[in-house]
Every structure is written in structure tokens, then in C-alpha cells.
Amino acid sequence: MEHFRNPHNIGEMKDADSFGEVGNPVCGDLMKIYIKVKEENGKEIIEDISFQTFGCAAAIATSSMVTELAKGKTLDEALEITRADVAKNLDGLPPIKMHCSNLAADGLHDAIKKYREKKK
Ligand code: FES
What we know:
Structural class: alpha+beta
Radius of gyration: 13 Å
Distance between the termini: 40 Å
Helix content: 40-55%
Number of domains: 1
Strand content: 15-25%
Shape: globular
Bound molecules: FE2/S2 (inorganic) cluster
CATH architecture: Alpha-Beta Complex
């Protein structure tokens, strides 16, 4: 699994437009997702995205996956990336690890929500 061995888009983004933060109630691990948004023809597009996690290997792999899925998408499209999509793209995680994979999608949604609130 590429995303386990070599996670993409890892690290803090200093000039992010917004970031989402979620904690995992099961294990107490934390996840941050940073996004940079550009507006183009009235669309809001995720120009850049990165993540930081203090979670386990499964959380890292799924974050890497989510950031790859979300990059270049509009905010509306990115909101449609669900927990299930993430697991599917990783060829199904063992069920015990499902709670880890939920962090990334939740973090992404949180980042988008905050971005929109800030713009209001
Ligand atoms: Fe905490 Fe996976 S065990 S995120």
C-alpha cells in the first residue's frame, strides 16, 4: 500500500485558508487538515491540501488518500468525499481500523465548513 509506505501531502501549511481539526474519541488521536482555496469562474477549488496527524498508521494512510482525492476538486465535490469512499479506495480496511479512517474525511469537512463560515 503506497499510502502507508509513502504518505502524500503531509505537514503543516503555514498559509492555509482554513483548517479542520478532529479528535478520535476511540483512541484520542488528533487530525488536522489544511486547505488552500482558489476561486475560479465562481468556483471554489482546493488548490492545495495537507494534513498532520498524531494518529496511527491507518490514520496516516487514509489522510494521505483523502488529500489526494480532494486536491483540485471544488469545495462541494470535496464535501461529497465520504468515509466510505476512503475505505473503498484503500481496498477495505480491517473493521477495527475504520474509526481511524473516519478522521480524514471528517477533518476535511470541518476545514470546508470553517472556510465558509469565515467568508460569510
Ligand atoms: Fe487512533 Fe487509529 S488508533 S487514529
